Amino acid sequence: MPNLPQKKVGIVACSGEEMAEGTVTRLAALKVLEELRPDDTVTICLPLFLAGGEGDRAFARFYPTIAVDGCELRCAARATEQYSGKPAASVVVTDIVAGRGMGQPAGLRRLNEAGQQAVAETAVTIADLVDSLLDKKWSRREGHFIEAEEQQSKVAGCACGSGIPVQTVQINGAAVTLIALPPLLEQFKQMGKRPSPETTAELLEQVKIYNPVPAADETAYLQMLDHEYATLWGELEPTL
Amino acid sequence: MSPKVIIVPCSGIGKTYGTVSREAAYEVIEDLRPETAQLVALSMLVMGEENACAAVAANPAITIDGCKLACATKMVQESGGEVAQEFAVLDVYRRYRQFKPNGIAELNEGGLQLAHALAEEVSAVIDNLQGGEEDA
Hints:
Mean pLDDT of chain A: 85
Helix content of chain B: 40-55%
CATH architecture of chain B: 3-Layer(aba) Sandwich
Structural class of chain B: alpha/beta
Largest interface: A-B, 31 and 31 residues
Strand order of the largest sheet of chain B: 2-1-3-4
Low-confidence stretches of chain A: 149-162
Distance between the termini of chain B: 17 Å
CATH architecture of the largest domain in chain A: 3-Layer(aba) Sandwich
Structural class of chain A: alpha/beta
Number of strands of chain A: 8
Shape of chain B: globular
Strand content of chain B: 15-25%
Number of helices of chain B: 6
Radius of gyration of chain A: 21 Å
Oligomer: heterodimer
Order of helices and strands of chain B: EHEHHEHEHH
Low-confidence stretches of chain B: none
Number of helices of chain A: 11
Largest sheet of chain A: 4 strands, parallel
CATH topology of chain B: Rossmann fold
Order of helices and strands of chain A: EHEHHHEHEHHEEHEEHHH
CATH class of the largest domain in chain A: Alpha Beta
Shape of chain A: elongated
Number of domains of chain A: 2
Largest sheet of chain B: 4 strands, parallel
Helix content of chain A: 40-55%
């Protein structure tokens, strides 16, 4: 397997700067990321789904993601679903506060006591969801949980790393962004696999673990991989 | 009375500079220029929320970015707004190297001082945009 991030849960906080509940989302997410589940969680800034690149937009497809929102507008959940992938779970601070009969959070910069209590409760809720999500199999190719039946037929374990490496290639004249292609190519080279039809076919099988490859396009994918891998070995000039 | 100036800080939660950008924005809207500055949350712009987009479309905006990805600046522009002045916390830090920021959930003293210096700069820009209506 290539050097891809291990299975982790993504956390996307709305961070709504206009309201105290937004501050709660930010601090609760931070508490989970730094204290409660530091080895099992990653995060991304919400605006990067629009302002960032393809790797950023692949976030919620690559990681099962928990959206943490301050209010019923649910900007984090809706933006994640719209621009990246459907969140695996969703938390709304106002629901937690109301559901547990807690006081009203106040203070954008310095939360009051109720706000700090909301941070603690929200963080524990997120951490429980992280544990729950880690028990399930997540398909990075499809961007959703794998049903029990599917789990028996395919295992896509990954080693540790950070970030989501992507590469945009041309398939039948169209630009296609492929998750994990750079480390796959690099790893094959490090393994000493010379460019050959057999190596290209093997590469395609690895690419299919992380990306949907339409059966009708497999020949085009093989040609692309053949070219990219030969380029990596210095046997071809790179294409732009 | 001139229209309010919109302040859009970075919404990042993983880096100190993001926290500095927010702290500075809060200081401007709560302490330094509460009458002439208004904060708009980046998440609202990401979702194209009507009031947020209308606010940035109708008023000059000052963006404060925590990293080179410049999400705040990009989102204001994407939302049809005019960025009157963009600040990058790193650039501000280069001007105030004596204030070394640290911490994310809570800034250290250096971070708070850097945020204050940034807030003063933002306030000066607001005053210029408002035609010098308030004293710096």
